[in-house]
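As the next step, I selected for study a record pairing a protein sequence with its backbone structure tokens, which the following lines show:
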Amino acid sequence: MSDLRAAPVETDANPMPPGGEVIWLTVAGRAPMRTMIWRPENAGIETCRGTVLLLNGRTEFIEKYFEVIGELIARGFAVASLDWRGQGLSYRPLGDRYCGHIDDFSAFDRDLGVFLEQIVKPSLPSPFIGLAHSMGGNLLMRLLGREPGLLRGAAFSAPMLGIRFPNALARLGASLLAHAAVKMGKAQSYVPGGGPDMMEGSTFAENIVTHDERRFLRTMDILEAEPNLKLGSPSYGWFKAAMASCREVMKPAYLAEIAVPVMIAVAEEDVLVDNAAVKRAAELLPDCRLVEIAGARHEILMEKDAARARFWDAFDKLTEEVL
């Protein structure tokens, strides 16, 4: 497969933290999934505090988080991350590789399970802590419910526990449209207004995810260096599956069973995630710290230094508590 490259994508502005290993896994019989780990001995960690399972969001890829991974290593953590099915350099199921598609989020669950069982648990030191952004936050919440004893704690950056709409009527209309499209055999078609070139020609002035121009341009440079990392708009199937997963993880009875300490950071200026849903989840979780990052857009970990510092302060307090 042409996507199976031996080395991660590095740029002058985005070098890989030392010691990273690319490990390809085969999931679902034939689908190659790209993962990376930083073992303590290879990353130069003398006293390891445990391992952070780093789960990124829709359209994202491991290289985008090299800065974050370096900051975790500096805190004494080994790191494990992956490219989700359908994005990054992992298996893309459609002929149109730029259409973000999944039939059900349980497919992500299974892929993550293979990574945990074959690589993370046998190769990296416990205790394990989750750190996830956006769609990855939805999947981390699913993991907390599925394997309650696995993680010592979990930190969320703008988790996708609800998708933002102008109002309830717009949300209902979008949900009905997605269900109808899937029933009509259009599950693998782009949502209205979507297409393969969502990031093509995007400028910092037009972006809605960060106020930090340097970090925005850094991501664009990575995509220019490796166009296979690009991903366009989601499919009707992805949208239907995402809405279903949000409903599942937002059930009060589901959240009440998640007993591990949790920190959730919400971005004040988020226009992608439903912050009201995230705040409801924080109230329902038995042990949760909610931090609102003033002046931040959706990608908190790609924001300006002041916003990132607030996130890291909350993360450090959580890890000091649980460890």
Q: What stands out?
A: The first strand starts at residue 20 and ends at 27. Residues 23 and 143 are 21 Å apart (CA to CA). The beta strands are 20-27, 31-38, 50-55, 77-82, 128-133, 151-157, 262-267, 288-293. The radius of gyration is 18 Å.
